[in-house]
């Protein structure tokens, strides 16, 4: 874990995020906290990660998401050498999708 990231302020932010219960609440909160471009960047990186895990090529990912190869490479590095945060959410969302079926 990145010790530079850990702070009381970040803890407060994460606790606030954990109180959100619906997508609508997330929209309301994140539209207040982030700029539109920041939110679009977050969502783009998440889509890139999802597509990398689906074994899509950089070209396919760039065409579908509009992400640069530099962004795709950074996300790929996070998937391979990061803290497994993306994979944690993919697994949990996969569990949610299966429980809905």
From TrEMBL:
GO molecular function annotations of the record: DNA-binding transcription factor activity; sequence-specific DNA binding
InterPro entries referenced in this protein's UniProt entry, alphabetically: Trp_repress, Trp_repressor/repl_initiator, TrpR-like_sf, YecD_YerC
A matching Pfam family: Trp_repressor
Name of the protein this chain belongs to: TrpR-related protein YerC/YecD
Organism field: Moryella indoligenes
């Amino acid at each position: 874990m990145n010790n530079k990231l850990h702070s009381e302020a970040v803890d407060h932010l994460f606790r606030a995020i954990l109180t959100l219960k619906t997508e609508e609440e997330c929209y309301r909160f994140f539209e207040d906290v982030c700029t539109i471009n920041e939110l679009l960047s977050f969502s783009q990186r998440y889509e890139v990660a999802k597509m990398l895990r689906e074994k899509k090529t950089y070209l396919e990912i760039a065409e579908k998401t509009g992400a640069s190869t530099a962004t795709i490479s950074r996300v790929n590095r996070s998937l391979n050498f990061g803290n497994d945060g993306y994979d944690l959410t993919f697994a949990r969302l996969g569990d949610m999708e299966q429980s809905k079926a």
